[in-house]
Every structure is written in structure tokens, then in C-alpha cells.
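Deliverable D4.2, example record:
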Amino acid sequence: MNAIIGALIVAGCVIGGYVLSHGNLHVLFQPYEFLIILGAAIGGLLICSPFKLLKEILRSLKTVVAPKHFDSKKYIEVLSLLYEIFNKMRKEGIIAIESHVEEPSKSEIFKRYPEILKNHRTLDFVCDSLKILLSIDIPPHEFDNLLEVDIEANAEESSHPFHRMAKVADSLPGLGIVAAVLGVVITMGKINEPPEVLGHHIGAALVGTFLGVLLSYGFVGPLATLMEHQVKEETSYYHVIRIALVSYVARSIPQIAIEFARRAIPESERPSFSELEKIMKGKGK
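Output generated by the structure prediction step:
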């Protein structure tokens, strides 16, 4: 929603300022300039992006309209799940969680956290990590490295869409100049026309440069930055899960493992010690 509101503010302020300065809106309406700039930008994106990446870009653009919020509630939910699992492992042994991680949809523990069950990536990350502990006796530092590799691989893949959008943003001012130059070429063919006609064509040509710069810095560039921010938020979320898992493997008791993870949560979304302690006491009963 913020992205839509921001785009409306950009368009409203730029066009409003132009109109208030007694500018002629008709001059800005240059559909062929739009065709040249946007068409070339989309074509360039197709050249540099395989089909799989194009699907990822479309998926990322959808999340801009309805973004995932990794707020305090999400962190509390995943830490509560991990606390229950750690407690069960500590009291009944690691083998007690085997059925839960093999078929989480049938697990009484996982059923208490429907949002995590719906998030397949989080579910796979937690379950696959616990399956490793069921399979082998892995040292904490190796387990940590393994989870780091997983998170980095996913973060790298998730970063491709915003990198491509950033490249498109960088190309738009140049494509605006291309449109402007073509407009000048057309104007030179009308050099014998009256000054009013020449002025109109020169103005239309300059609109190309204006559109390229506006689209780059007012829309596509900020969009790429927002996509990057969402990837960083998601990466932080998985690092919190990693810290909880590694702390427990390093022989921390469940409460301490969860506290390590809580301290890794960004301060703006970090639940208080008392808030999480109350939840943990409820889960421990």
C-alpha cells in the first residue's frame, strides 16, 4: 500500500507542480515517447533475464503491493514453535520429534502455528535443519555453517529480481535521451516549419528525457530499493531461526537458546524479555 501511495504522491506532485507553473498538460502527453522508453526497457529486461528470473520478478512485484511483514508477531510465533520443539527434545530425546518434522501437517505442535505451516520455505528450513540433527551428530560450528550456506543461497536467489529492476532504473535516463534524440531527428525534418510548430516538436522531444529521469528516480529505482529491503527483512528472519537452532545444538537450555535468538531480532520488531518469558512459561506447561 505504501508503494501505491508513494507513486501517487510522486505523480501528483510532479504533474501538480507543472500545472501550477502554468504548464500545458497536452505537451506531456507523448504516447510514442512512452512506447520508446518503456518498450526498450522491457526489451532490455527480457534480454538480460532468463524465463525463470522473469517469473521471480513478477512474483516480487506482487509482494510490493501486498508485502510480507516480518513483525514482532512473526518472530514470536517462530520462536514459540522452536521453544516447544526444544523442550520436547530435552525431555523426551531427539527421536521424539521425528514424526513431527517428517509430517509437520499432522503434527500437534506445528498445527498450533498455522502461519508457519502455510509458509513452505520457513517450514522446510526448520524441518530440514532438525532432520539433520536426527541423522547425524553434527558439531555446532558445522551446523552453523550449513545453515549459513542455506540462508546465503536463498538470499542470493531472492536478490536477483531487485538487481534487475535496479539495472532497468539505471537504463531509463539513457533511454529517455534516446527518445529525445529521435524527437530532435523528427524536428530537424521540419526545420522549415514556423517557430510555433518547431517549438512544439522540440518540447515533445524533451519530454522523453523528462520521462526517462522521472521513471528512473521516481518509480522504478524506489521500487527496486523496496524489493531489496524485503529481501533483507526475510534474511534477518532466517538468521534468527539459525541462531536459535545453533544455540540449542551448542547445549544451551531451551530458554537460553530462545533468548540468543531474541537478541538477534532487529530492535524495531524485538519482543521484550518479559513478553517472551510469559509466552515461554505458557508453552512450557
